[in-house]
Amino acid sequence: MKITLMHHTPLDVCAHAIRTCWQSFDKSDEGGEKDKALIDRVGNKYKHASTLEHLVYTFYIQGISRALLQELARHRIASLSVKSTRYTLKELKEGEPFLDDDYENASKFIVLTGNAQVDTASIKALNNLQAILKSGISNDIAKFCLPESYKTELTWTINARSLQNFITLRSNKSALWEIRNLAENLYLSVPSEHQYLFKESIDINQI
User: What angle do CA 138, 111, 79 make, to 5 degrees?
Assistant: First the structure.
């Protein structure tokens, strides 16, 4: 899994939105400590959380399973653009079949769980899909054979309020290990000056 923060809203934009309510622009320090404290006080402590929606983050997320992708789809307030299997299955089609225990090479295409029985089954599914592609069946039909472990990537845009909710739910120890890793790494990927907004959403000791 690899996460790249592509873009984020500066803190002073959120502070400006909050100060719009009281017309207190003269008290701003342009995203400095006064503005950071204001955002925390209004957005978190006073629970006027809609103000946090002015902070938006765009991540490029690579190397997650399609099983995790389904979980992401349940978080409504986010936008995602996903690598298309319709156009990219040629990467698999042009390769050679994998041995059942060739985890290293197969990991280019699938997320490994560490469970040999499950991972071997994923490799067999990968070989089956590859054989179907090589037989000339179109990607649109062949993709119905994709294993849940098949890797994908996406550009994901989410506001701070929704990201707090995501991290709270998905960094919990009861969450699936892969999405828990994602939640923790998203927290680590936001700018350091923004991380204070998410500290109550995540157990730092888990990282």
Answer: 75
Which pTM was predicted?
Answer: 0.92
* Residue 41 among the catalytic residues: no
Domain ranges for the chain, please list them: 2-65+68-80+152-206, 84-148
CATH class in words for 2-65+68-80+152-206: alpha beta
Whether 46 has a pLDDT exceeding 90, the answer reads: no
Answer for the pair 126, 143: CB distance below 8 angstroms, yes or no. no
Q: How many other CB atoms sit within 10 Å of the CB of residue 198? A: 20
Of 4, 128, 130, 119, give the one whose Cα is nearest residue 57: 4
Give the per-residue pLDDT at 206: 59
Confidence class for position 61, pLDDT limits 50, 70, 90: very high
